[in-house]
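W.,

You were right to be curious about this one. When I first looked at the sequence I had no strong expectations either way, so I just let the prediction run and decided to look at it fresh. Below is the sequence, 224 residues in total, followed by the output.
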Amino acid sequence: MERISCPFEVKASGNKGEFEGYAAVFGNTDLGNDIIIEGAFKKAKTTKDNKIRVALYHDLERLAGKSEFSEDSTGLHVRGQLNMKLSYVPDAYELMKDGSLDGLSVGFDILPGGREWKYDEDEPVRIISAAELWEYSIVPFGMNPEALIDSVKGMGSNDVKDIRDFELFLRKHGYSRREATAIASGGFKAFQRDAGEHGSLSDSGELTSEMLGDLKNAISNFHI
């Protein structure tokens, strides 16, 4: 079975075991010198409800859940649901949320005639055009720098408690890593202080839904 890994980034945290993003990105060369082209996943080994299996570390004895999947112009989009009742899944989910487990890796077979080689600056690059998808796994390292998970579901107003949550909130609303880091490093304390002065910061120190709405409107005009 072939494997290609992609790093992901948790942009919001929750406790539902849901996540969404791309398990593979089309058209770019990963760190293993592989390129998956659009439409490459011709077949898939699915569950009875037409979902793909999610595993830990490509260990099919440690299945973690299942996932909807589809291809678009960007890549293989997945919307997964972890089975939080399994003893080993909650620990893995916590590692996903804190960034320790930061990769998704697709497991697949290349179909006959589904690959060719080219040279890019004297480096051999494998182009994959036809494959059968078996599963994708949560792994600690990724090889494709352009594939990001979009979210781990469950983030609400009460989840924004510190500068890290604030940065994740910004990323969730469309800001790049660089923009979110810059805004969060200089803006969170000022925003929190201003909110406190106006009596709108909750007693627990968390941002309220109204404050998050005001913030979204304010940063929509902010540019780095």
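Here's what jumped out at me. The first strand starts at residue 2 and ends at 7. And, maybe more interesting for your project: The radius of gyration is 20 Å.

Coffee later to discuss?

I.
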